[in-house]
């Protein structure tokens, strides 16, 4: 049976989806972009700040399911410009222990919602 996970500490969904779904011990998150949860304004001062907001949003979604980044087994990163990979990776890496970091793919795409530069989704297991 699935359990809907939503928190006011991450941006409210802007379509017919939820922030995450918990099935058994596995959490499937929707992609997060750099929307500030209080204002729903985009945080896009620079790519590092944008990525940090995405990761903080994801942290809030994980916490709503009583999980942390330690529980993450897989991430998907979608970026609009592969030239930003290094800066995105540097911020992303601050949230994981390199020795136990999750599996991951990073894909450059033509466009992302609201024309942001980065979107990240995760799968976590308790």
TrEMBL record:
Coiled coil: none annotated. One of its GO terms (molecular function) is deaminase activity. It comes from the Bacteria. SUPFAM superfamilies: YjgF-like (SSF55298). One of its GO terms (cellular component) is cytosol. InterPro entries: RidA, RutC-like_sf, YjgF/YER057c/UK114. Belongs to the RutC family. This is RidA family protein. The lineage of its organism: Bacteria, Pseudomonadati, Bacteroidota, Flavobacteriia, Flavobacteriales.
């Amino acid at each position: 049976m699935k359990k809907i996970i939503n928190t006011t500490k991450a941006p409210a969904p802007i379509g017919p989806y939820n922030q995450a779904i918990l099935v058994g011990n596995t959490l499937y998150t929707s992609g997060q972009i750099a929307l500030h949860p209080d204002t729903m304004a985009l945080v896009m001062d620079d790519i590092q700040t944008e990525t940090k907001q995405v990761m903080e949003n994801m942290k809030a979604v994980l916490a709503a399911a009583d999980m942390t980044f330690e529980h993450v087994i897989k991430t998907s990163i979608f970026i609009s410009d592969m030239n930003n990979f290094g800066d995105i990776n540097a911020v992303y890496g601050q949230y994981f222990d390199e020795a136990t970091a999750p599996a991951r793919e990073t894909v450059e795409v033509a466009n992302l919602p609201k024309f942001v530069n980065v979107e990240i989704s995760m799968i976590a297991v308790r």
